[in-house]
Amino acid sequence: MTLQSMTGFARHAVQDNHARIIWEIRSVNGKGLDARFRLPQGFEAVEPVARAALARHFSRGNFQAALTIERQAPKGAVALNDAYLANILEIAERLRSQYGLAPAAIDGILALRGVLVEPQEVEDEAAKAALDSAIMAALDGALLALGEARRAEGRSIGVILGHQIDTIAELAQRARNDPSRSVEAIRARLAAQVALLLDSTSGLDETRLHMEAAFLATKADIQEELDRLDTHVASARKLIGAGGPIGRKLDFLSQEFNREANTLCSKSNAASITAIGLELKAVVDQFREQVQNLE
Fold first, then answer.
1. Helix crossing, 183-200 with 206-219: angle to 10°?
2. Exposure check for the chain: N or C terminus, fewer CB within 10 A?
3. 3-state class of 202 per DSSP?
4. Where is the Endoribonuclease YicC-like C-terminal domain (predicted)?
């Protein structure tokens, strides 16, 4: 399965015998599945059906869906509402005589709502069913197009995440191979610390002091953190390889990566390890930002 971003846009139109149906759908990041619909008046019954269709295609994201129906003008002549027009003209003449207003222009009068009556086409049950079917066909097309747009971005995010995971693995290996972790370096550092304490303090048990120093060195060892980083790297690669809606799982792994990076920095007793830990934290932050976009 392919990774899928939660960000995308799609527009799909279908031509019915009497109208052109257009769906536009946008999606952005979201913790769950949330959809808002903007529908023409009289088409409110479309929402629950459309919401169920959207839930069949996607599991996460905030969606905004807009339906536009462009009806063809019905055939026939435009009629004049004589009674309404007579009333308008009477009012206009009264205003002219009382207040000295200029006579009303014919184009202004005709532009008034209700003066001209367009022919109405009676929509039977068959035509209504055909329109409903066309609306759902247009929606299915828009949802398929949106899914492809989200998958295309998901593939791009997958490439970025792969590079970031490789960087995390490389940093863990650098920390593992850092000269400060060699037996000789640790022995020299401990010897220097013990010598400093013995020179500056009297009455200390040298053997006990060596034992305490060795204990502190063991406590500061970062091998467990490096091993867990390797495990998390393997898990992340497996999840990305499997694909599907893995955003939440990768977000959890990003928290684990961050925890190990923080512990590595806190346990570090060498500037080189601290520098690697800080670089690791920066990459993990970038990793988590990308993960937030995945379904």
1. 140
2. N
3. coil
4. 180-295
Count of structural domains, the chain: 3
Q: What is the mean pLDDT of residues 39-47?
A: 92
pTM (global) more than 0.85: no
Amino acid at the residue 59: S
Identify the domain containing residue 112 by its residue range.
79-117
Neighbours of 208 (CB within 10 A): 9
Give percent above pLDDT 70 in the chain: 81
pLDDT of residue 87: 87
pLDDT in the model for residue 206: 60
- Residue 14's SS3 state is strand
Task: Decide if 10 contacts 138 (C-beta within 8 A).
Answer: no
Question: For residue range 76-94, what is the model confidence (pLDDT) as tens digits?
Answer: 556 778 888 888 888 888 8
29-43, 106-120, 190-204 — most confident range: 29-43
Same domain, 31 and 41: yes
Q: Which two tokens stand for residue 177?
A: 């191979």
Q: Is 29 in contact with 295 (CB distance < 8 Å)?
A: no
Handedness of CA 113, 118, 121, 122 (dihedral sign): positive
CA–CA distance, 27 with 6 (Å, rounded to integer): 6
Say if 51 falls within a structural domain: yes
CA distances from 218 to 207, 212, 222 (A): 17, 10, 9
**Are both 179 and 238 inside the same structural domain?**
yes
Range 23-52 average pLDDT: 94
Quote the tokens at residue 162.
């792969």
Strands (E), the chain: 8-15, 19-28, 33-38, 61-71, 79-80, 116-117
**Contact by Cβ (8 Å): 160, 287:** no
